[in-house]
Design goal:
With 136 residues, this protein is an all-alpha fold. It has three helices and no strands.
């Protein structure tokens, strides 16, 4: 019974961590249009975009490590509470949960990348159109 309560507590902590992380990433993403608007040259745009993606990948890597650490801690606590014949089953379940969390993170990262690329294309297309209008 204690193991179930701890599992529920850890799942809640992981959910809170994921919500915190996604809030952080959404904030970063929401700030991009304003940052992009400040670009004076195409090189500024590409440097900003590169820095954004580098930070995004670093953030996701760190978040995966955080979530894996949480899952590992739960696994260790579960092992201490469960006799050895149930250990393998508990470990596989914890690994499955960690894998699901990492997969969710990957899917979310891909969604953010797709959105950022679409937004960047819009900005570049508008900049090109504005440049053509000035040349005419």
């Amino acid at each position: 019974m204690e193991a179930n309560a701890r599992f529920l507590e850890t799942t809640t902590e992981q959910s809170q961590e994921i919500a915190r992380f996604f809030g952080h990433r959404l904030n970063e993403y929401a700030q991009m249009p304003q940052r992009l608007a400040g670009c004076k040259q195409p090189q500024d745009f590409f440097e900003l975009q590169s820095a954004f993606f580098e930070k995004m990948f670093t953030d996701y890597r760190q978040e995966a490590q955080t979530l894996f650490g949480m899952a590992s801690k739960l696994t260790q606590e579960s092992y201490e509470q469960v006799d050895s014949k149930h250990y393998e089953k508990s470990l596989l379940k914890a690994q499955e949960h960690a894998s699901q969390l990492i997969e969710q993170g990957k899917q979310h990262a891909q969604h953010i990348i797709d959105d950022a690329e679409a937004r960047a294309k819009e900005i570049v297309d508008k900049a090109k159109a504005a440049g053509k209008g000035k040349a005419a």
